[in-house]
């Protein structure tokens, strides 16, 4: 909305109702219809009232100021409104779930535009099912490489020798390989609508400054970063989906240090322009050493993504200088390896990258009153779990289901949502410690042990995959008998 409009007097009346005057205005006058909550300048109401043929509005009709309230028509006048803070995977999933439950969500996002970048993500079956529940599965592009005999994944030892490795997509668990941008695009299409549902309102460069809960709702002081102006708005629910360092969590639940568990590790991730020389385009490559590791994830129809991680005790100092210099320092002594050298050079050329410390968020309760946290803001399991996106999708879909099942009792809905979701989140959070040892072993003995176990598993899995590959190819070979000409 144009910031200048906020300086003008507004009244609560909907665009749809103005279009239906004078019938609607007459019903407003006799009290048979309540005012909806979209703001319009007083002059427009005067013109609409004039079309009713009445001399003046009744004195009992009180019109209250309102800003940015996007409810249209008599049907929506009674809809509950929710503020969703954050336009990430968790925020958009929650918004779609809320809309499915009959709510009117409004998303505010700190950034001035969509964040369409990102890196490689695994979608587990829980995430795939949640995408279907949210109605975005048909819009979601997956990039699983086709498995080939011998495998698509390689481990590189200290002497630079490559050997077959167990790829993360080799396990028979229904994993889907995607980019964050693939999920973002599918969710964006979901919230903007395809003509069958109303689009969700999104306000960019907007942040909550203060959240105050009252008897009948939550009053939020919002700030437009472009103008610096602030305005109050009331909602029935506030959903904090603004990431691991959530501003909603700080305002309502307390400071970050009360909930962030430091894992003393760092991550750097980015999209590469091209594959490491001598490897196939869809190959995945692992260079793992004690306390530091480098992964290259190959995709079916896209350049690979690089994922670097290392353990460190001095995380506060890691943000003191340029991130690329920090990463190069962490992998010093490994530059003789062609894979390491290519990935580090690719980092220099990448237009953007993610560089951050690794934490988990642990909370005894994800909601209080009319404020609820979802995704990383509530339960960040960290990158080692590989479950962040799947859990965010599932959390948003489950929130919508709980609100549908308890339409008149918000407290009961939030209780049911958390009771149903928490065991899954707790289990995945605990597994992150084990997965961390695979991604970046803590010591040389651990590396040897993990490598040995994974190699045994790889032999079994690859034999099964090879048999399936041969069986699938057999009908094709049988279709053209050898020695026969046409």
Automatic annotation (TrEMBL):
Keywords: Membrane, Monooxygenase, Oxidoreductase, Transmembrane, Transmembrane helix. It comes from the Bacteria. It holds the Pfam family FAD_binding_3. The chain crosses the membrane at residues 82-103. Residues 82-405 form the FAD-binding domain. The keyword Glycoprotein does not apply. GO terms for molecular function: monooxygenase activity. InterPro entries: FAD-bd, FAD/NAD-bd_sf, FAD_aromatic-hydroxylase. PANTHER family: OXIDOREDUCTASE-RELATED (PTHR46865), POSSIBLE OXIDOREDUCTASE (PTHR46865:SF8). This is FAD-dependent monooxygenase. It comes from Streptomyces violaceolatus.
